[in-house]
Design brief:
Blueprint (H helix, E strand, L loop, with lengths): L4 H9 L17 E7 L3 H14 L4 E4 L15 E2 L8 H19 L10 E5 L2 H17 L4 E4 H7 L14 E5 L3 E2 L2 H14 L3 E3 L4 E7 L2 E7 L2 E10 L5 H6 L8 E10 L9 E4 L4 E5 L5 E11 L7 H14 L8 E11 L6 E4 L5 E5 L9 H14 L13 H4 L17
Parallel strand pairs: 1-2, 1-11, 2-8, 4-13, 11-18
Antiparallel strand pairs: 3-7, 4-6, 5-6, 9-10, 10-11, 12-15, 12-16, 13-14, 14-15, 17-18
Helix pairs in contact: 2-6, 2-9, 3-9
Length: about 425
Amino acid sequence: MRFSGLRILKEGVRGNRGWTPHWRNPDPKPDYDIVIIGGGGHGLATAYHLAAKYGQTRVAVLEKGYLGGGNIGRNTTIVRANYNLPGNSEFYSHSLKLWEDMEQELNFNTMMSQRGVLNLFHSDAQRDYAARRANSMINQGDDAELWSRDKVRQTVPYLDFDNGRFPIYGGLYHARGGTARHDAVAWGYARGADQHGVDLIQNCEVTGIDIENGKLRGVQTTRGAIRAKKVGIVAAGRSSQVAAMAGMRLPIESHVLQAYVTEGLKPCIDGVVTFGMGHFYISQSDKGGLVFGGDLDMYASYAARGNLPLTEHVMEAAMTLMPMIGKARILRSWGGIMDMSPDGSPIIDKTHIEGLYLNCGWCYGGFKAVPASGDCFAHLMATDTPHPVAARLRLDRFETGRGLMDEEGTGSQHNLH
């Protein structure tokens, strides 16, 4: 089934009776060449690239719930490539390029909207850092503009520019950044993977990982044992729990990140705006709701819900930056389980167990990384060599201390990233 304007017109005339399911719902086979644990954005993108680029069609994605029911459906949908450090910079630059071609490649509307990302700064020191970051972005081949206070006021006049504690000095603008429809990204990759023969198996929880003499043999699931030559762990906030089945202890802490959406409003925010003196970011969805979030709940948890003190903290930041938001009513909130690494940067690597691969530690960057994560992890699993743009995302950097990528300069405390 291929989407086109003509097809949509025909189905509209025919009462939409010709549409078929986007993907199959198969039973698991007893063995596969590759098994992906986790049916979120990263897992589905990995499966798609394994099949589409490397011809690996004996692949299964195992999801304990329904496809796209985890963090890919619990985020604030921001896409950007405005990183500073080598290792992160080229990776997210690669990801943004894949975002720009995604809809054409998948023949699926992910509602990618490059409406721009504006990072505000509120002091001379923050301005200096924004200038260095902008130069790093430009050197990487991405776009960056340093906006004056007047330019920011002209574009987003509803902010509180003369706040006594946090006056706005200017902003770093990233025009190619923006937002996309989070669940549509999962659906698009699921549909593409299925079309290439990948089995997408829902309601299939992995309960064990079979290892013999240091070599992977397969997995145990609630739907029976499945043999596999290679297994990739792509379980986001559950990565530590899944890796523990293989006897591994990961340098990962799982924390809850809350997000919020207001009632639908008339268009008022064109792009994404972030607050430089507090971890707060906001955009407006196509349905009119203001979508925003802030800091982690700061304690380790596997609960997909947050707490009220952190909600109050986020609302304070919102009111500090844009007092007008106080007139909007919150429609709903949700929490995603974030796999936080010690240096705030991801891990895409082989493990010490032959045939077992790891993709985790995405912290706040999971959604915008989906296409590159899938591309790079598929490359690693298919060729046993790291993709050039992910060569620094090694697991052993936490053991040796070499190659750490502390993007924010906040040290080795997981919850600060």
